[in-house]
Amino acid sequence: MKKIAVLGLGKVGALAAELLHGSGFDVTGIDVAERNDLPFPVQTLDLTHTSGVEALFAQQDAVLSCLPFNLNIPLAEIAHRTGIHYFDLTEDVPTTNRVIELSKTSKGLMAPQCGLAPGFIGIVGASLIAQLDDCRSCKMRVGALPQNPTGLMGYSFNWSPEGVVNEYLNDCEVLENGQRKMVSPMEWMEDIYIDGMKLEAFTTSGGLGTMCETYQGKVANIDYKTMRYPGHANLMNFFFHELLMRDRRKEAGEILINAKPPVQDDIVYVHAAAEGTIDGKLQRREFVRGYRPVEVAGKQRTAISWTTAGSVVAIIEMVRDGSLQSTGFLKQEEISLDAFLETPTGGLYAAS
User: Among the four residues 2, 53, 123, 294, which has the most C-beta atoms within 10 Å?
Assistant: First the structure.
């Protein structure tokens, strides 16, 4: 794998493309706007024009989509037809289910959910489960937040508003007492403290990826929650359900990002914990981090940008180097955390 097209050159997409370029890939960037500030060629292309996309994909070994989740299914289908590797960052469950179906007959690797959550958090959770002889529960939480919150909501939309609305409104898969279940979003509230900072956590959709399927019959309880500053969930429940904005998702996203635009000084909290037995004794294993902005590829990058882009690039590096499979469907929980951290890009997580 040498040639790769990166679709969507926002903050995450542009950084992923720069990291891939720095790692030795032959990168072609694709965006709706002309770009001349990147160290690789960029094409403007209408991604709804199938013949143009197929012609582009036919010249590549792989494609990475950093686009909103609702654009990914047709692109995954074209990657499947052209026989190249496909990677994306989606948290959307129907999109992933379609990619799983495509992977059954794919010539290349089909690897959605390669971002932060789903993605890195699943790699971390699996590593904690593996440390136990018998695991009774694994709880994974991620929060991408402003370091200096203002207002009642205590939030800034450093991530796609479409993705956040999707996570807040779609049902969430969990393992509870050994059974795979769907539960409502923005529920199962709990308090979490990281370095003395009080956060609230609640269910959101898509963060577990395929972990419930993988661990059913092996781990009794698995769930994923999003972390926010206290009070956030009540306000969002009021916005979506009391004001019925759940029926106007596009407008909801526009309202939210207009009210809470992105910030540069953000932080990504990762909190994962697994409980079970080792040599018959009950134990708890934790992975707790607070990732802040760092300088990457000569520029200061927000925490959400580098943690998301870094995750997918590290996985692509592992596929190129032969430490991961090159066909079929890639589950994040099958990726070794130690091997991930040893890649040139995965090392960002170890150093921060």
Answer: 123
